[in-house]
Amino acid sequence: MLELLAYLQDPELVARFQRRCGLFLVEAAHHSRGKTSSPAGTPVHADKSREQLRGRWDHQDNNSNYKHKENGYAAGACSTPQYEVRNWLLHLLFLLSAGLGHEIFYITCLPCIHWSLDPFLCRRLVNMWALVMYVGQVMKDLLKLPRPPSPPVVKLETRVDAEYGLPSTHAMAATAISFTLLLSAPARIQFQFEVGLLIAVTLSSLVCLSRLYTGMHSVLDVICGILISAILMFATYPYWETFDHFQLTSHVSPVVALALPFFLCYTYPELDYYSTTRGDTTTILGAGAGSSVGYWVNEQLGQTFEPQGVLPVPLPTLTANVLALGVARLLVGALALVGTRQVVKTLSLRVLYSWYRVPNHDDSARRRREIEVPYKFVTYTAVGLVNSIVVSRVFVVLGLL
Question: Which helix (H) or strand (E) holds 126?
């Protein structure tokens, strides 16, 4: 068993997958700062120790020479590309698939299910997404297993490079979202289950394989991510209806929805260097908390915006008018959410900076727990509230719903 785990954790296994897909590491010429850039202009880290990664965030703040280079060559004296792409079709496919696993995609995609399909399904997806992401992020920072090193792996992402690897939260989210929707939708919408299963398997597989292609996870990280999501779904599935009832009808539901996620964010495991995991987790739990309170408010007001008639309802025919209404809802809703995010983020940071007597220009202060957790939680709780309460009512006023 140990030999199998070591084999699945082997970075050379990831490198072989990358080469099979047409992505090759090119011998890197090092410059004085030890960083190179990809042909697409994205900085790629060479092999680094965990101690070096601990100081990377401060280095990026203070080093004005840390910039993207559009010509595809390393900064400074380096003139050798870090990697070579020989199959651009797979390259673009996997980069797109990797984007489907980022938090920003779910924060923009899940509201569309609420606005154009069924708020019930959106509520189910947000609940499961928040659960699996919290479990996955905490496991990363408790287990502290490193990501595959470069070389031999080509790394196409840098934002999360300082995070630990196991499990892959991209794989967890993709699995949970795809199959929660597949399990919940038949009771609400008429569709061919086999087609839904094929779509769920395809989308989740693409996201999982993209984590290998981008060099951010080992095969073991991805497999563990899938298995952990499957276990969480299996363990919680019998209680989905019970939790729905509590979430919508209990008088203590709003208190629990706000207090528990904030407590989990504020007590998130501390690392000895800054990582994006706590901030990303706070973003997700904040959005989930705001949405949960919003769904409770809608239930109390008796206006849930759910499909009318006998369930399951047929899928709407995709006509030009339906498509135009969907695009209009997307644009109006996105504008409302982005506007809410910017306003609440600015105000919350000003209040916290004033409270802790931090200079307004000190962006590094945002990494302090007492500032990062409250400002992100309040910001995305507001986004969740606007999404679940306000946007649908704006659609009604504008004749878009």
Answer: helix 119-143
